[in-house]
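Exercise 3.2. Students should predict the tertiary structure of the chain below and write it as structure tokens, then compare their answer with the key that follows.

Predict this chain's 3D structure.
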Amino acid sequence: MADGFLSVAGAAKTFGAATVLDGVDLSMSRGEFISLLGPSGCGKTTLLRIVAGLMRPDQGKVALDGEDITRRPPHKRDVSVVFQSYALFPHLTVAENVAFGLKARGAPAAEIAPAVGRFLALVQMSAYADRSIKALSGGQQQRVAVARALVVGPKLLLLDEPFSALDRKLRETMQIDLKRLLREVGTTAIFVTHDQDEALTMSDRIAVMYKGRIEQLDTPAEIYRQPATPFALEFVGLSTRLPGKVTEAADGFVTVATESGPMRAKGNFLPGSPVLIGVRPERIVLDHSHVNRIEARLVDAAFQGARVQLHFQSPQGGQILVEAPALPAAAGPGTPLEMSWSVEDTLLYPASEAA
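Answer key:
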């Protein structure tokens, strides 16, 4: 899928005895938006800083648009960075902040004002051009930081959790606005986040990172529907997880003995293999129409607008999550209910890979 416009090959970085990046490979296409998603300490910001030139890898190479930039200084990489703190100049106006990079690059004076005006309009900040940065809200400052990064026409835009300080409603608005803006100007971008909803909303592809490695690199839909590892299953979206042992295997299907009963799944494992079964909450229905069935007691129900999230506990103490259109009639805490899901919706992993 990726054409290698940006290519990171074998990037490794250690700090003392801690391995922060463990031979990471990443390739992306021109105009693509990729999110680096993972928990704190997984290596996503370190990878971003290596691409930006703010940190040098112990091993590996970085190439951008066909050129090796591994040892090139940050100001010669044609890469712009939007930091979590925005790093705007408080003594300059909005327009002066946006113009700063163009002036630093020696752009002709006649070109600066039109360019600044265009990008302020793109981020809907034209009316604030003469205001002090100190007079802006967090969301407005974020827009100015994006305009300043884009006005110089970088080959690559890097964003390090730029929405983390914003409230939820403003953050969601900025996600849509930034996605629209980047597509409009055709900028290639890498976005660092620990927020799975943010990554799912904005990305063309997501790199799920864990312990210095990329666990899975794919489209948001594919990562959600077919997570490659138990960590990807757990970190992206909600799920029910059932450990068990394979008792039968034939023709690409297995039967797994779990504490909640036998389950069928697609897979190729030898009998006796310890495995982990996973299923997404919206794939479970409150009836016994499918092969894989469980009876469990309702613990709680959380209203979520169009749907209700139901929390169950199996007789063996395991947690089961179900998303349903509505709370079943006469169901309350302690009510036993039957539920089932299809073999096709059953995810299966080696137990040794469980996160």
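Discussion points: The chain has a mean pLDDT of 92. The chain has two domains: 6-229, 238-353.
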